[in-house]
TrEMBL record:
Protein name: EAL domain-containing protein
GO molecular function: cyclic-guanylate-specific phosphodiesterase activity
Domain EAL: from-to ranges: 1-146
CDD domains according to UniProt: EAL
InterPro entries cross-referenced by the UniProt entry: Cyclic-di-GMP_PDE-like, EAL_dom, EAL_sf
Highest taxon above the source species: Bacteria
Amino acid sequence: MAAELGRRGLPGDALTIEITEDQTLDVEGQGLDVLRRLAASGVRIAIDDFGSGYAGLAAFRDVPAQVVKIDRGFVTAMLGSHEGHDLVDSMIQLAHRFERRVVAEGVETEAQRAALVELGCDYVQGYLTGRPMPASEVPVTDASRPADRAVVLPGPRPPGQADAAQVLR
């Protein structure tokens, strides 16, 4: 993959590979080595549906991910109970301790977005920011401009992380 990116003149960080939390259970030995080589070449690794699978903290620790995507079920439940709120808060803090960015999936309301800002979440994804559409309807943007690449939430960043103006490429 890294060779193909190079052949096309693209930097490694032009590609993000998402693996679900359950897939991290299958990543050991050679698979983990491949992920580490990809990450070393600049390819971003994202753990998708975080919290919804059966992977333990060892898999979270060992996979060389730069991004953690919190499963939408947790985002939906976070405003309904203290436990739901505290669980999302803990997930964000854990990811930040490992110097990983956090994307909250399934954000549909302004109240969810505001709560995530308060908790220090880095990005949101969901109907609040845009609905699925055919590729032919996606607006043409300037990918070199950060505002055209991601919805960035304001707020403090953990030590060693960029400020809110810097986004995933």
